[in-house]
Design a protein that fits this description.
The chain is mainly α. It has two domains: 88 residues; 147 residues, Intergrase catalytic core (hpI Integrase, Chain A), CATH 1.10.443.10. The protein is 44% helix and 4% strand. It contains nine helices and three strands, in the order H-H-H-H-H-H-H-E-E-E-H-H. The chain has a three-stranded antiparallel sheet, with no helix packed on it. A hairpin with a 4-residue loop joins strand 1 and strand 2. Helix 3 runs antiparallel to helix 4, helix 5 packs across helix 9 and helix 6 runs antiparallel to helix 8. It starts with 9 loop residues before the first helix and ends in a 29-residue tail after the last helix.
């Protein structure tokens, strides 16, 4: 039974997401905006069964969305294209009406900035609630940096994905639902082993490598919050950077910054 959508478009939204999943395309990026669209339709035009220009533009212009106008327009365009492909009369939002996304070059850390950043990671204070934060932060950012992981790949990493005997890391269902296996530097493997022993004392037989105390992954915004806290602690370094920038290291500099944690 459908519990996520309630408007007249619910069946078609579910069909689109199921099709994308079957084709190996990520559906998570469209789920949140289409839930917003569904709520809008259920509230503002509960009897509407046809996607019209008026409905599409009214939703795109509604409020001050944290998703951004371009994100909503892209989502409703994809939905319109899906409906049209199913021979359903629908308005397809024109591509030329969607503002172009400005590509931002990744921030390249200097050696000094990396040293200050990882020193700040090592100095993270224990949380006032029962948490592994002071043990997780020094390791997760070194793993992101040393293995070129996307921040969310590090956040969602499960214990079974990291082979600390063979020194390999498996990333499952990443971009475009692809898997990839990564060789982990042995210094970093040793660091992960030390962390794993400590984490196992707090949460025995845990599923996630970097869990909350309830053995669930931290929320999406958590890596970004911890990253910026460490940047501030390090002396307000790299104010325009984001955690993703750690995925672009100069490979011959990796060794210098892997140790000194735990």
């Amino acid at each position: 039974m459908n519990t996520r959508f309630s408007s007249q478009f619910a069946e078609h939204i579910e069909g689109m997401l199921e099709l994308r999943d079957a084709m190996g395309m990520a559906k998570s990026g469209l789920l949140f905006p289409l839930q917003s669209f569904d709520r809008f339709c259920a509230r503002e035009c509960p009897e509407a069964t046809k996607l019209t220009l008026e409905i599409a533009t009214a939703w795109c212009n509604e409020g001050k969305s944290s998703m951004g106008g371009g994100y909503k327009k892209h989502s409703i365009r994809q939905f319109g294209k899906y409906l049209a492909s199913m021979d359903i009369d629908a308005f397809v939002y024109p591509a030329e009406w969607i503002p172009k996304t400005k590509r931002v070059l990744p921030y390249i850390f200097t050696d000094e900035e990396l040293s200050l950043f990882f020193s700040a990671c090592d100095a993270v204070a224990p949380s006032h609630v029962r948490s592994l934060r002071d043990y997780i932060v020094p390791v997760i950012f070194r793993l992101i940096y040393g293995c070129g992981l996307r921040p969310q790949e590090g956040r969602l990493l499960k214990r079974r994905h990291l082979d600390l005997e063979k020194g390999t890391l498996l990333v499952e269902n990443s971009k475009r639902n692809k898997d990839r296996r990564i060789a982990v530097d042995w210094d970093l493997v040793e660091l992960c082993r030390k962390y794993d022993v400590i984490a196992d004392q707090f949460i025995p037989d845990r599923e996630y490598f970097f869990p909350t105390i309830h053995d669930t992954p931290y929320k999406t915004a958590w890596p970004t919050l911890q990253f910026h806290r460490c940047c501030v602690t390090a002396g307000n370094i790299a104010p325009s950077s984001v955690p993703y920038d750690l995925s672009y290291p100069n490979k011959n500099k990796i060794q210098t910054f892997l140790l000194k944690a735990c």
